[in-house]
Amino acid sequence: MQPPRGTRDFGPDEMAARRALEERLRSVFRAYNYREVQTPTFEDLELFLAKSGPGIREEIYDFKDKSDRELALRPELTAPVMRYYFSTLKMQPKPIRLFYFGPCFRYDRPQAGRYREFWQMGCELIGDDTPEAHAELVRLALDLFEAAGLEDYHLRLGHLSILRALLEDLGFPVAEQAPLMRLIDKKELDGLRKALSVKAQGAKLDAFMRVFDYTRLEELHDVARTGRAKEAYDHLARVFGNLAAFGVDASKVRVDPTIARGLEYYAGLVFELDAPFLGAEKQLLGGGAYDLSGVFQQPPVACVGFALGFDRTLVALEKKGVKAGGEDVVDAYVAALDADARPALLRAVHELRRLGHRIELESGAVALKKALQRATTVRARLAVFAGAKETQRGVVTVKNLANGDQSELATTGLVPGLDAAIRAAARSGPR
Amino acid sequence: MQPPRGTRDFGPDEMAARRALEERLRSVFRAYNYREVQTPTFEDLELFLAKSGPGIREEIYDFKDKSDRELALRPELTAPVMRYYFSTLKMQPKPIRLFYFGPCFRYDRPQAGRYREFWQMGCELIGDDTPEAHAELVRLALDLFEAAGLEDYHLRLGHLSILRALLEDLGFPVAEQAPLMRLIDKKELDGLRKALSVKAQGAKLDAFMRVFDYTRLEELHDVARTGRAKEAYDHLARVFGNLAAFGVDASKVRVDPTIARGLEYYAGLVFELDAPFLGAEKQLLGGGAYDLSGVFQQPPVACVGFALGFDRTLVALEKKGVKAGGEDVVDAYVAALDADARPALLRAVHELRRLGHRIELESGAVALKKALQRATTVRARLAVFAGAKETQRGVVTVKNLANGDQSELATTGLVPGLDAAIRAAARSGPR
């Protein structure tokens, strides 16, 4: 009776919080004129092999369908979204801004905070690689967490051309950098120093290793003075300039020239956002500039995007005690204490629901005591009930469960009366 | 570059419509105090075998994971939701009202309107099988389509005890009814008549076959006069009585004693909702009373629920020209025609987005003509731009793209000015 290993059921309270966060984040994407797209839950396995290499197969759910098609549950959404772009949108005027939200899957040893089915929300900006566009994307990433209500986070910005130029200076041409980039991505600095010491030693190696402590743009100035490194520095400087114009809190954004990202298709700007209080699982968002056109045998197109870990963001909010909203409040619990009272109550309940109120209706004729118990159980603001006595007198009884106040309403005009009572209880009540 | 066979990509316009419909339907479930739950995209294969028998395997995506676990992409959501109920909620006070929304999967020959990945929204009411509760569930089903904006539909209500009693009268005990129920479910009336004629002929068989034309409760009265058939008739009569009290339009609900439902676990009330103008794929919703406790070796619990075909409902709305809302309107397109104009515009754009406005920001310094082209392309209400001339004078130009009106706003007070201009354009504009 348990869900499969590494997957989860989400109960009503969790789902209310998840849907509330989803809707908040979606509003931010919309405000930046990103438009939502949705791709299938599974894709041809080939798509992910072409993007990430054969090694990805060990980390994903791949399977054959009944016609022996090789399929895979998607491990991420950038490749599917770019497949959609190249198949359908590539002739449209650029830039094109797309966002997505949905479950992704990895075959991984389940551990704290890592699941086999997890949710990602993210976006792709296609056809604009100016520093101005990159700054707007970073502003968007920050706004997502502001909208979520998280305060304790920061974003690190780097540029792969700087990192690659530094490695070249040490004697490692791009073709030899892959194993180094993996060590850098995992921040295995001892292993990195050892691997580098084959070709670089002494002051030169020490100077490189110091870059791992840099957090301010100015610190980079002297290590990125020529060629592509200088261009990358200038790009980063313009991104920071635009972020300031956007009103970004400078304490929230720092430089990190040692972001390598695990994925080989990144080139240029890269960034990661952390909530440090989460420890090992602190990264909530990661992204950068990339070009996947080769996967689809298409002409190059400049892209930049990021993905936000939805589950981990919820964990961060929960740890900080931030309510994403979406508390489940029942506006009224309505019970007919005998059958004669029922028709008038049913009509009113239907109208109140059309007004957007959340009403639980008792299906049977129940005793008053049981009705009040149920109203409390479902956390209703009001209990509304009527029995034989009330029906004869043409009224219903309304009890405010927060303060115990009890009053009567005439069955003529019941809908506006209850509508007003619900609004009053919502304004005053702690529920 | 195409999605896997039988699956679809949803572009921005489709997604806007889908999310708008999703949210409308969700609001209705919430008004009835149903609470959303979410289960994994795949389950242990055993769950669906236990519920539907070994034959289901031919119709679903089943696969082994890397530890040889037998898994299956869920073909429906009632079994997973009931698994969740028995594992987690069974001790909570009843009734319990749950709803869900998500993709389901079937391995099926793709055909018009039938996909291998499709979306279902549905609900389960656990622990209440009174006619009053059943009526409220039917009222909820009807409200979903009212909220969606569909008008041309009707719901058919039946009760399996009546159908089974009629078959017993013809000489077929329950143990022999399965093949007959399948013929009835598919409305293969010639085949049914032939199968029945082994034991029943003449006037008796004719009388049974006439039941297929019944649409009113009164027509059933004489064929359901004793035993469980009579109880079922009385149950249906009370459901109809409650529907009337709920203000249900009588033309929207009819009796159909020949609903068999394909699924053997149904018992008691059954119902289906059709949009007749859709032809063969007309059924938009189906449901009924059931008890899945046996699948989980648990004590019996009365359940009733339904599932709504989300994709097909969208097709119905589209055929009828009903907009589910969610049109993508860009409130303003904002361009700095030179770099000096940019900082003031960036600050304003950020504030306007926080106010909920949807703003597309041009990343580069562009010519006026190109800016106006882009504003038209993205269907913006307003184009907002400033160049050297405007910057010197401390203003920006605002052009209403619906009527061509052009005016200037001071950069001091730009946010309230643009906020007001956007609101005015939204009120008057056709976009």
| Major sheet size, sense and barrel closure of chain A | 8 strands, mixed
Q: Please, how many helices of chain A?
A: 15
**Count of discrete domains of chain A:** 2
In round numbers, the mean pLDDT of chain A is 94
CATH topology of the largest domain in chain A: BirA Bifunctional Protein, domain 2
Structural class of chain A: alpha+beta
Unreliable runs of chain A? none
Which chain pair shows the most residues in contact?
A: A-B, 87 and 87 residues
Oligomeric state of the chains present here: homodimer
Number of strands of chain A: 16
CATH class of the largest domain in chain A: Alpha Beta
Cross-sheet strand order for the largest sheet of chain A: 1-5-6-11-10-9-7-8
Helix fraction bin of chain A = 25-40%
Write the topology of this structure.
2 copies of one chain form a homodimer.
Chain A: H1 12-31, E1 35-36, E2 42-44, H2 45-52, E3 62-64, E4 70-73, H3 78-89, E5 96-105, E6 117-126, H4 131-148, E7 154-159, H5 160-169, H6 178-185, H7 189-196, H8 202-210, H9 217-221, H10 227-245, E8 253-255, E9 266-274, E10 283-290, E11 303-309, H11 310-319, E12 330-336, H12 342-354, E13 359-361, H13 368-377, E14 380-386, H14 388-393, E15 395-400, E16 406-410, H15 414-428
Parallel strand pairs in A: 1-5, 7-8, 12-13, 12-14
Antiparallel strand pairs in A: 2-4, 3-4, 5-6, 6-11, 7-9, 9-10, 10-11, 14-15, 15-16
Helix pairs in contact in A: 1-4, 4-10, 5-10, 12-15
